[in-house]
């Protein structure tokens, strides 16, 4: 779960949690898939790791969305492994990857100015059929990680939704079975919570409980009967996030009983 890196410049160990996740989005109005280490969020930007390296390879036969096909997937995985291994040996941190518009991109951060063009040229001699590109820049604030790779609140919740759905699937849950789905939302004031309640009762949510937490937040637990198919859950959660934002609140997750 954790990876230790030794930063020679600051002479200290950096413990990086490996919390990888993927989500779908759009980049330049094209379908895109981003995979990143969410574990970097709590420690980035990391001192001295101010050099952002970028490697991009052009897919030979992308599908209609611009993503890798099943047939080409192993070759792209091998290229990713080779580039990542070469850079990690030089102390680079892998931040994330992007697939979109027929390309596969990798993002790294490092303490030293690595000649990414030279390194990629050496690695890609093993993959002569592929065209590729490289780039490097100073990114002290890790803007490429926080402002580009990192999901917005809707995309982030989609990641969390998928993790809950995966756990339910492992328990043998039937996603088509309707049952009460509980949601939690927090507010800074009771007035905001009451305003939110008025809005969600109009769209069929039942109020289960209203409490004040140890952090002086006004918590609300609501419920609505539905299935837990992917689109159903995401649509419902995104709607609640929007209503919560309109009332100065923040969405805090959902749960449900297993149904077989």
TrEMBL record:
Domain (DUF695) ranges: 18-150
Domain Regulator of ribonuclease activity B: from-to ranges: 160-256
Pfam families linked to this entry: DUF695, RraB
Identification of the protein by name: DUF695 domain-containing protein
Organism: Aureibaculum marinum
